[in-house]
Amino acid sequence: MRTSLWTLLAALILVSFISTSVTAQDAEEASEEGNVIIDVVLPLSLAFIMFSLGVGLTTSDFGLVLEEPKAFAIGLTNQMIVLPVVGFAIATALSLSGEMAVGLMILACCPGGVTSNILTKLARGDTALSISYTAVVSVVAVITLPIIVGFSMDHFMGENAPDIDIVSLGITMFLLTTIPVTIGMSLRHFSPTIAARMETLVNRAAAGLFVVIVIAAIASEWDTLMANIGTLGPAVIILISLMLTIGYKSAMLLDLPEKRATTVSIESGIQNATVGITVGGLILPSLDGGLSVLSLPSGVYGVLMYLVIAPFIFWRLRSVEE
């Protein structure tokens, strides 16, 4: 069992380094000296966070897609279609700079994560449905994120947009997200006892990595944040608030019970900021070795989402008690 565990973890680390090599040429062009944090630590952290998600998944979680088709279709439509459209509208209406607009679109294309599952549980939503959303959308985003972000860069940045290989970005996304999730699920399947023992520790470590990544994103681009806070802050708050509202109202309009409407709302409004931060660095590495300016909206989002969703969770808890 222990040999199997170490083999799986070694594979996880290998995946991260392989994904780093996919973008090595771009990193060399952006900076003569390789940056360990951006090129290794950040991708490895994302891979570990996705691995922690996989440890808590089983194949039956995907079965809810067939068991609850209407609930799943509503949430998937909100995340895959409505969210990017709303993000595009907000970036345009608030006249965000090219980099900030693209960063917001990257965020709008990200799947949910362990955080959305935890928040759903706190709000007394359908946790199993939330996990199913996260699992499926994490796979689908490997295809949708590179395509939508590519179009967004052409629209918002024009001639200033860096050249990106959509296929390579998709492959990198696959290596950093889908493969680690699969490894985690494999561990859960073949060594359920070990997976159960390590799940809490892995989730705590993933949460800690998330906090560190968000703080690093904000700190490394502090001057840029201060220059754009007047538009970026409201943009992130509006995005979260609108999607929470749209998610809940659309579910209630289509006659879903409140428990599932809560899940749809949170999955529609809460994204995996770590994916956004990492993808921003893959597309446009910082010349000074810090995190990419494209990562800043996701970093700000990682802080503000808790402040915005807190009243929603409080309201839901009071509704359940009544």
What fold name goes in the CATH topology slot? Na+/H+ antiporter like fold
Named CATH architecture: Up-down Bundle
* Average pLDDT score: 79
**Strand portion:** under 5%
| CATH level-1 class | Mainly Alpha
Ends apart, CA distance between termini: 48 Å
Shape: globular
- Cα gyration radius (Å): 19 Å
Query: By helix and strand content, what is the structural category?
Result: mainly alpha
How would you sum up this structure, described in words?
- With 322 residues, the protein is mainly α.
- It has a single domain, classed as Na+/H+ antiporter like fold (Up-down Bundle).
- The longest helix is centred in the C-terminal third of the chain and has 32 residues.
- The relative contact order is 0.18.
What keywords describe this structure?
globular; mainly alpha; 0% strand; disordered N terminus; Na+/H+ antiporter like fold; 322 residues
Task: State the gist of this model.
With 322 residues, the chain is an all-alpha fold. Helix content is 83%, strand content 0%.
Helix-strand layout with pairing:
Layout: H1 2-22, H2 24-30, H3 36-55, H4 59-67, H5 69-93, H6 98-108, H7 114-122, H8 127-157, H9 166-190, H10 192-220, H11 222-253, H12 258-269, H13 273-283, H14 296-321
Helix pairs in contact: 1-3, 1-9, 3-9, 3-10, 3-13, 4-5, 4-8, 5-6, 5-8, 5-11, 5-12, 6-8, 6-14, 7-8, 7-12, 8-9, 8-12, 9-10, 10-14, 11-12, 11-14, 13-14
